[in-house]
Design brief:
This protein has one domain: TIM Barrel. It is of the alpha/beta class. The protein has ten helices and twelve strands. The two termini are 16 Å apart. Strands 1, 2, 3, 4, 5, 6, 7, 8, 9, 10, 11 and 12 form a twelve-stranded mixed β-sheet that branches. Strand 4, helix 2 and strand 5 form a beta-alpha-beta unit. Helix 1 runs parallel beside helix 2 and helix 6 packs parallel to helix 7.
Length: 254
């Protein structure tokens, strides 16, 4: 059985960690460096840092933030937001990221995924698949880009399959319907993605109770569990989540 990993996520804006619901109504959730240090001590297996405004503001990821956070942790760091070229990926990895996550740029230029996988190795390339429910799509899920603001008329599940073919190493699906709501991961969407690919799938968006983490693994097929609000606002510690999962027979690193 796979060892399930816990991945807190630092959503970044203006140099601070923020958290909202469905990516809007953002509230301050602290300093990124302090948060990163705290999560590593708490037993996080990996850390994600997403520059949520980079694509919308049409700019690159702030490398300074990556350097500052990566300098205080040893666990793998995945950085996303505004990454649109091989040069961007190179700079982010040089700044201390272990892997990158791309979304809008991959949709715009799928070859970027295959070129990046060739250049840096599949293990360093995560493709984030953001979606909303849409009955018109074969799977019922439509791909959206630009921080969830623009629908692109593509089936999200089909796109996840394509990303695996292109050489991505991890798929990170986020249901825009669930992000930040604490109502639980979108299990239907997560499962549809994990059934469509053989890559590790990251459950993301909406964790609010311990049960949600278990459901993401057991019903959603996720291997990495990303959460933000519940950790930032200290609703649960990472240790609590891991002990709960272990008690349910899920393999975790305690």
């Amino acid at each position: 059985m796979d060892i399930i990993k816990i991945m807190p996520c630092l959503d970044m804006k203006d140099g601070r960690v923020v958290k909202g619901i469905n990516f809007i109504n953002l509230k301050d959730a602290g300093d990124p460096v302090e948060n990163a240090e705290f999560y590593q001590k708490e037993g996080a297996d990996e850390l994600a840092m997403l520059d949520i405004a980079a694509t919308v503001e049409n700019r690159k990821t702030r490398l300074e933030w990556v350097k500052n956070v990566s300098s205080v942790i040893d666990i793998p760091l995945t950085v996303g937001g505004g990454i649109g070229s091989l040069k961007d990926i190179e700079l982010v990895i040089e700044a201390g990221a272990d892997s990158i996550s791309m979304n809008s740029a991959a949709v715009k230029d799928p070859e970027l995924v295959s070129n990046a996988a060739r250049e840096f190795g599949s293990g360093k390339i995560t493709v984030a698949v953001d979606a909303r429910r849409n009955e018109q799509m074969p799977s019922g899920f439509e791909l959206v880009v630009s921080g969830g603001t623009k629908p692109v008329g593509k089936d999200a599940i089909e796109w996840a399959r394509k990303c695996q073919e292109l050489g991505a190493g991890v798929i990170l699906p986020t249901s825009m319907d669930g992000d930040g709501t604490k109502a639980g991961y979108d299990i239907e969407f997560t499962r549809a993605i994990s059934d469509a690919v053989t890559l590790p799938v990251v459950a993301s968006g909406g964790a609010g109770e311990l049960e949600h983490f278990y459901e993401a693994v057991e019903k959603g097929g996720a291997r990495i569990l990303l959460a933000a609000s519940v950790f930032h606002y200290r609703i649960f510690s990472i240790r609590e989540v891991k002990e709960y999962l272990k008690g349910k027979g899920i393999e975790v690193h305690l």
